[in-house]
Design brief:
Protein name: Golgi SNAP receptor complex member 2
Family: Belongs to the GOSR2 family.
CATH architecture of one domain: Up-down Bundle
Shape: elongated
CATH superfamily of one domain: t-snare proteins
GO molecular function, one term: SNARE binding
Function: Involved in transport of proteins from the cis/medial-Golgi to the trans-Golgi network.
Radius of gyration: 24 Å
Order of helices and strands: HHHHH
Structural class: mainly alpha
Keywords: Golgi apparatus, Membrane, Protein transport, Transmembrane, Transmembrane helix, Transport
Number of strands: 0
Helix content: over 70%
Distance between the termini: 54 Å
CATH class of one domain: Mainly Alpha
Number of helices: 5
């Protein structure tokens, strides 16, 4: 019973931390350019703390009685997914800020350029404008890819939640039928494999997004 109270308190504390991180991300998005880095560092510290809380939850889950362990592990896995989602949101905000700063530097460099009344002036202006347009296009494509990737991750999360509900229902039916403990362990092992495949899919999606961003940056 002491373990159960401890893990319930940990769940509540982790839930409060999610709300703090969401508020911090909102401050990052609304901060002026000179204050954005400090807001980003604050949000990153909260996310790092959130990851540590998820590690503690994993330890507490292992101490739960077998009858409660499966449900506790599902909640802990959801918190782990939330941590990855919030980290991706912060990186997207950081990317947008860096893109804006690059655009402003390009604009200032163009305004400071000394022009001479000859044909090279037109060539220089055309090249600068073309380069600026190329940067804007690349940034827009990367933003679109990040938005698509976030949508894919959200869809995967919804599908995962649906599979969890189906899994819990199936476990309830199996408990009602009184099937053997060996069959129950086989089903739990298959669930662990499915979760591993899910995380691998998330990793591959993030890797593709990162490679696309590097390509267009």
């Amino acid at each position: 019973e002491a373990h159960q109270m401890s893990i319930d308190q940990q769940f509540q504390q982790t839930s409060r931390l999610i709300r703090e991180i969401e508020a911090a991300l909102q401050r990052v998005e609304q901060s002026p350019q000179d204050a954005a880095p400090a807001a980003e560092r604050e949000a990153q510290c909260l996310i790092d703390r959130f990851c540590s809380e998820c590690d503690r939850l994993d330890i507490l889950v292992g101490k739960q009685p077998a009858v409660r362990r499966q449900q506790a592990k599902l909640r802990a896995d959801q918190f782990r997914y939330d941590c990855q989602h919030l980290q991706a949101s912060l990186r997207q905000l950081q990317h947008r800020r860096v893109a804006r700063e690059n655009e402003e530097r390009e604009r200032e460099a163009l305004l400071r350029t000394s022009f001479t009344p000859n044909d090279s002036t037109s060539v220089l202006i055309d090249r600068s404008l073309a380069h600026n347009d190329s940067l804007n296009t690349a940034n827009k494509r990367v933003d679109d890819m990040l938005a698509q990737g976030r949508s894919v991750l959200d869809n995967l999360g919804d599908q995962r939640a649906m599979l969890k509900r189906a899994h819990r229902g199936m476990l309830g039916v199996l408990n009602t039928l009184g099937l053997s403990g060996t069959l129950m362990r086989l089903i739990e092992r298959r669930g662990s494999q499915d979760k591993a495949l899910f995380f691998v899919g998330c990793f591959v999606t993030l890797l593709i997004m990162f490679l696309v961003w590097r390509h267009y940056s």
